[in-house]
Write a structure and sequence with these properties.
The structure holds three protein chains of three kinds. By secondary structure, chain A is an alpha/beta fold. Chain A folds into two domains: 133 residues, P-loop containing nucleotide triphosphate hydrolases (Rossmann fold, 3-Layer(aba) Sandwich); 72 residues, no CATH class. Chain A has a six-stranded mixed sheet with strand order 6-7-8-3-9-10, sandwiched between helices. The two termini of chain A are 36 Å apart. Classes of the chains: A alpha/beta, B alpha/beta, C alpha/beta. Chains in contact: A-B, A-C. At the A-C interface, α7, β10, α9 and α10 of A face β1 and α2 of C.
């Protein structure tokens, strides 16, 4: 549950580079993520943070570099070169991806229960009662009432949709969660509730997570570590509070000093 | 039956303006290759270059092309539409091949060597010297949940079939039981999930049979196939097992209690009767002396 | 427990003409188990800066800051995080929490993170909140809506929830009434008694007299203007 349970990193990123033609998406990114660690990636739009996230999650193929993931059996595999079936299997089991827009991560024409149950059925669950009970349990964990289990996401508020997306992703007990602006577009009050929920789940499940956001308040509350990107390059990394309170790089200082005080 | 030798145009008896069975030989060869590939990979949807046929899409253009590529002058051809030989669709297709191929036609299941069907499997068990050709509107079983063809092809190739059970899950959560009554998805030989065309799920157990089964989707340009006796399992949940259901009544004409029934509304006051959807099966039972509740009153041709 | 040697700190303001401001140099200090050292010096002399460097919140420009064998200046983030989780506690002047989280859970969190059973952690939190006179009716509410003094006490309760072997206290008694001030000093004395190494900033001289074994004037480490 606590980091340090295994000795090696869960994810090792080595020189990951992705180009859009001649334009840099992200360049030569290195880092290790250990079990239980939550890392934030911040930067403005176009800084390459989403490109990097998609390279790590297997949605984009990097032009260079390795993304080494420690499988459940302890073997370390490069997810860039592994076979597609294996990578997609990871995507349904050990990995989770929370999209900024819930409708990108949900099946809008399928009930909440079906949305949560899909990953279970994808890995072979064939007992309706069991799948439904698990779905109800997860809806409860993300604070959605059992009575809504047969409702479709279209009938849910934005915050509920986002919580449903999280339940759908976490039901198979993943070890690594990728989040792309998980609180983007939500009301501030809804954001707080979601952040609290995510923090609790990360702690209880011992999740490792990589969170891409431009919201510094979000990373301060969620992330242990921070990576600051600009023009596809990593310009600064470190402990979240250290990077935010004592930024070293010119760009980070600008970023931090640009936040409006409430 | 299926004869890969080329049938020269001279074999067409009446319509010398057309090649035998309407399609040109190159097209038939292309379709036959697709059929053979389909038989080699049971349940796999083989793309083929579907031709314009002299009938609208949705009227069986896929089945007609498969039949055209399958028929030989010696074949005896039968067409059924929802089990009946005498509906517009069945009559038109039968006439089409009478004129363009000059093949013998029949309404008797046992006498036919090639049977084209829409939405039913004949009640009488088929033999290994028979071919059943299905008309398929939408060949992709995953389509209603996943609109992207690129994605569904990938799901098939990687055997990612969780989504199929999501559909069944939704059925149960909404209706308390698997409400899918037709086009009920099956898994073929433990590999491909397949849409058996909109046959009632009552027919699903019959998919494991002695005859070759060919499926043609004209608009969607796909052919797939089941070789004789290949394993076809209807998807279900452990606690909601598959049931091959039918109306709980015997046929009012022939008294059969083992055949799939159509419900027929008789008058404005809601009187109804159940009759075999397979007209040949019903007729041959009555000819053999079986009588249902209303069979004595009804005269032939009433249904 | 805490060994500080030759620590310097500069701030480089890239966006204001790359001004480099040296704020500390040559800071050297050692705190043993059970020891409490008070930092003194005029406002702006760098007391909080030094404390933040020990916690890893500020990056030291040079020198060594070794806490329980970990050099905070060089250690990778996850080692510092582990140190903060298990060894090094910090009571800052500001409470920073996720809005909406109940006070009881805010206080129990350092224990929950260590994997302590939720009920055990909450019981410990209840005991501390009771000692610090936070009325029970407030426990289920988020401390974000509390008064400054209440927030300060919640912050202290949180800082003392886990028996950290090393503690950093930034003005723990400021804005507290006499009774609560006394409770906080008791907590500090108890921590010393169990062997915690403590570095504190106390403007309250009487409090400093009572708990500190010695004081260090950080003005001595202020760089001479070039």
């Amino acid at each position: 549950m606590i980091q340090g349970e295994t000795n090696g990193p869960l994810l090792s990123v080595r020189g990951v580079t992705h180009m859009y033609g001649k334009r840099i998406g992200c360049a030569d990114v290195h880092f290790d993520l250990y079990p239980g660690e939550v890392m934030g990636i911040v930067g403005e739009s176009g800084s390459g943070k989403s490109t990097l996230l998609n390279c790590l999650a297997g949605h984009l193929v990097p032009d260079r570099g390795e993304v080494l993931f420690e499988m459940r059996d302890g073997a370390v595999k490069d997810t860039v070169t592994m076979s597609e079936p294996e990578r997609r299997m990871l995507g349904r089991t050990d990995w989770a991806f929370v999209h900024q827009h819930a409708r990108d991560g949900l099946r809008m024409n399928v009930s909440a229960g079906g949305n949560v149950g899909e990953r279970l059925m994808a890995v072979g669950a064939r007992h309706y009662g069991g799948i439904r009970a698990e779905a109800v349990d997860w809806l409860d964990r993300v604070e959605i009432a059992e009575s809504r289990v047969d409702d479709r996401p279209t009938q849910f508020s934005g915050g509920m949709q986002q919580r449903l997306q999280i339940a759908r992703n976490l039901v198979t007990g993943p070890r690594l969660v990728f989040m792309d602006e998980p609180t983007g577009g939500l009301d501030v009050s809804v954001q707080a509730r979601l952040l609290d929920l995510l923090r609790g789940l990360v702690r209880e499940m011992g999740l490792s997570a990589i969170i891409v956001t431009h919201d510094l308040a979000v990373v301060r509350l969620l992330a242990d570590r921070l990576m600051v990107m600009k023009d596809g390059q990593v310009v600064e990394t470190g402990l979240t509070d250290q990077v935010l309170d004592d930024p070293q790089h010119a760009y980070t200082q600008l970023l931090v000093s640009s936040v409006l005080q409430v | 039956m299926m004869d890969l030798r080329e049938n020269g145009p001279e074999t067409a008896t009446e319509m010398t303006d057309y090649n035998f069975a309407y399609l040109d030989e190159q097209t038939k060869r292309m379709i036959r290759r697709a059929i053979l590939k389909g038989l080699a990979i049971p349940g796999y949807q083989v793309p083929f270059a579907s031709r314009e046929m002299p009938m609208p899409y949705g009227w069986g253009t896929g089945g007609v092309q498969v039949s055209a590529a399958t028929l030989t002058p010696e074949d005896t051809f039968k067409v059924i539409d929802q089990g009946a030989d005498d509906t517009t669709n069945a009559v038109s297709i039968r006439k089409f091949f009478e004129r363009t191929a000059g093949v013998a036609t029949t309404e008797e299941t046992s006498k036919a060597s090639v049977i084209q069907t829409r939405h039913r499997i004949p009640e009488e068990p088929l033999r290994e010297d028979q071919i059943l050709v299905y008309q398929v509107p939408i060949p992709e079983p995953l389509r209603f949940l996943e609109p992207s063809e690129v994605e569904t092809r990938k799901m098939h190739s990687l055997e990612e079939y969780g989504l199929m059970h999501v559909k069944l899950y939704e059925d149960i959560s909404r209706h308390g039981a698997i409400a899918t009554a037709y086009a009920y998805p099956v898994k073929v030989e433990g590999r491909y999930v397949m849409d058996p065309s909109p046959i009632p799920k009552f027919d699903n157990p019959k998919l494991e049979m002695a005859a070759i089964q060919l499926f043609g989707a004209g608009r969607e340009q796909r052919i797939y196939a089941l070789p004789p006796w290949c394993r076809v399992v209807s998807l279900d949940f452990e606690d909601y097992p598959f049931e091959a259901s039918k109306a709980d009544a015997p046929c009012d004409l022939c008294g059969a209690d083992d055949s799939y029934l159509d419900e027929v509304i008789m008058d404005d006051s809601g009187t109804r009767m159940f009759v075999c959807s397979d007209t040949d099966y019903c007729a041959s039972r009555r000819a053999a002396g079986h009588v249902g509740a209303q069979g004595a009153i009804e005269q032939e041709g009433a249904a | 427990m805490i060994e500080i040697e030759g620590v310097a700190k500069t701030f480089t303001l890239h966006n204001q003409g790359c001004v480099v401001i040296p704020v500390m140099q040559g800071a050297t200090l050692s705190v043993a188990r059970g020891d409490c050292v008070g930092l003194i010096g005029a406002s702006g002399a760098g007391k909080s800066t030094l404390m933040r460097m020990i916690y890893g919140n500020y990056l030291a420009a040079e020198g060594r800051i070794v806490v329980d064998g970990v050099d905070v200046v060089q250690a990778p983030p996850r080692e510092i995080l582990a140190l903060r989780r298990e060894t090094l506690g910090y009571v800052s002047q500001f409470l920073r929490v996720v809005p909406r989280v109940p006070t009881l859970d805010v206080v129990a969190e350092p224990l929950l993170v260590l994997g302590v059973d939720a009920e055990v952690a909450r019981n410990r939190a209840r005991a501390l909140l009771t000692r610090l006179r936070i009325p029970e009716r407030l426990w289920a509410l988020s401390p974000t809506s509390f008064s400054g003094g209440e927030q300060q006490r919640v912050n202290i309760a949180r800082g003392f929830a886990h028996d950290y072997p090393a503690l950093l206290l930034d003005e723990p008694t400021a804005s507290l009434d006499a009774a609560n001030r006394d409770t906080v000093l008791e907590l500090i004395e108890e921590a010393k008694a169990r062997g915690a190494a403590i570095i504190g900033i106390f403007h309250d001289e009487a409090a400093r007299e009572r708990v500190c074994d010695r004081v260090v004037d950080v003005s001595a480490y202020t760089p001479r203007a070039a």
